[in-house]
Amino acid sequence: MTIKELIAPEAITLTNEEIRRYSRHLIMPEVGMEGQKKLKAASVLLIGAGGLGSPLAMYLAAAGIGRIGLVDYDVVSYSNLQRQVIHGTSSVGRPKLESARERINDINPFVQIDTYGEPLTSENALVIMEPYDVIIDGTDNFPTRYLTNDACVLLGKPNVYGSIFRFEGQASVFYAEEGPCYRCLFPEPPPPGLVPSCAEGGVLGVLPGTIGAIQATEAIKLILGTGISLIGRLLLYDALNMEFDEVRLRKNPECPVCGPEPTVTELIDYEQFCGVPAHDHSLYTAGMDGAELARVPQMSPSELNERLNAGEKLFILDVREPHEWAISNLSHLGAVLIPKNRVLEHMGELDTAQEIVVQCRTGGRSAEIVNLLQQHGYKKLHNLDGGINRWAREVDPSIPIY
Ligand SMILES: [Zn+2]
Q1: pLDDT above 80 (res 231)
Q2: Which of 107, 104, 40 lies closest to 72, judged by CA?
Q3: Alpha carbons within 13 A on the beta-carbon side of 142
Q4: Is 292's pLDDT higher than 90?
Q5: What pLDDT is recorded for position 281?
């Protein structure tokens, strides 16, 4: 298949400088002058300028895609640099769109770059996506993934999908005109909290390079109209065992968005649909509703510090994993580690009479444990707001932030 309605390549010209730049493409019959002109005529929208967006933007720019749109509202942080190779150390603290634009400009000044420094939402998604030939999903959360899928189905555009977690990645091309969509595969999102994000579970730094390069390859093939695409196939990659596998996908005749009798005919509230926030990883409180969250008493790091300094007895319960404890901990303040999924079995060791401050990395998991302990009758509870990372920022800069 090929992308319909590309600008007629005859209307596109390549300068001598561009011909030199793309010579390794031009000498391949599968690309040639005509293919290179198609790439120049094409426009691709990247949802996310992070792990997947980094190799995607760089390779698509280098390949000569004429117009690249980037949607991202985040700023570069130190914890991004392990995998988001489009951003450098000197860009920490700057908007990702700025550093990505500079890098793309340096790779290929012939590329037009459009930037959208806002979260993709049900209100803006159709307007942002509409002008582009190919949409590429480089998101890290389910609400945005379903939003991207549904918007692509409604607009009749191909959605080049990729996802990464720890050592494993997936890629496919969801194009409802020709095959299944993401919802054909996953009609419903996973229960909140079942699938941790990369921010919670980690990701091998090189993994988005592999999956992002596969997505860039698929986008280029769609534009050239060459080869066999991943439409109808889900590619599975296991980096730890270095294995590729694939699953055949079928269009689901009952699909709520791309089936013959769709029930989703316009964009919906995807955060509600998935039961998790799309745009705030710091308070990933899976399985808790707003009322439960509102009942979690928050304590700021400075308040905890003042009370400890005043000699008050507060028991700090760290609910992270042992390998996180090895990075940073408050053991010098008497903190005790009981990983989140073992709190129930160790509940008897917690003193109901004592004030307990529950703490994790950024305050999400600990809020869940406060909620759990509340349900078991504990009353003197606090959630360390912002977790040990905020403690490190505001109270003790000697503690590393991760
Ligand atoms: Zn579908």
Answers
A1: yes
A2: 104
A3: 24
A4: no
A5: 42
Residues with Cβ within 8 Å of 211's Cβ and at least 6 positions away in sequence, in order, are: 52, 162, 163, 164, 169, 170, 171, 237
Mean pLDDT of 78-106: 96
Pair 387, 360: CB distance under 8 Å: yes
Q: Does residue 360 have an active-site annotation?
A: yes
Residue 183 CA to ligand 1 center (angstroms) comes to 5
Give me ligand 1 centre to Cα 39, in Å.
28
Single-letter amino acid code for the residue at 94: R
Residues 32-73 pLDDT 10s: 999 999 999 999 999 999 999 999 999 999 999 999 999 999
* 182 CA to centre of ligand 1 in angstroms: 6
- Residue 284: its pLDDT value, please? 43
Place of tokens 């009353």: 379
List all residues 6 or more positions away from 373 whose beta carbon is below 8 Å from its beta carbon. Answer: 343, 347, 350, 356, 358, 381
pLDDT of residue 289: 65
Residue-wise pLDDT tens digits, 240-257: 999 999 999 999 999 999
Do residues 343 and 260 touch, judged by C-beta distance below 8 A?
no
Mean pLDDT of 219-229: 96
pTM for the predicted model, two decimal places: 0.78
Mean pLDDT of the chain: 92
Cα 38 to middle of ligand 1, angstroms: 28
In sequence order, which residues have a C-beta less than 8 Å from that of residue 49 and are 6 or more positions away?
57, 70, 71, 72, 74, 84, 86, 96, 97, 100, 138
Q: Which of 184, 198, 258, 274 is catalytic?
A: 198
More confident residue, 375 or 124: 124
The answer to whether residue 198 is catalytic is yes
3-state secondary structure of 57: helix
State how far the Cα of 149 lies from the Cα of 274, in Å rounded to an integer.
14
Contact indicator for 212, 219 with CB cutoff of 8 Å: no
Query: What domains can be seen in the chain, in order of their start residue?
Result: 9-274 (3.40.50.720), 290-394 (3.40.250.10)
Does the pLDDT value for residue 379 go beyond 60? yes
CA of 306 to the centre of ligand 1 (A): 55
CA nearest to 372, candidates 356, 361, 391: 356
- Provide CB contacts within 8 A for 221, sequence distance 6+: 227, 229
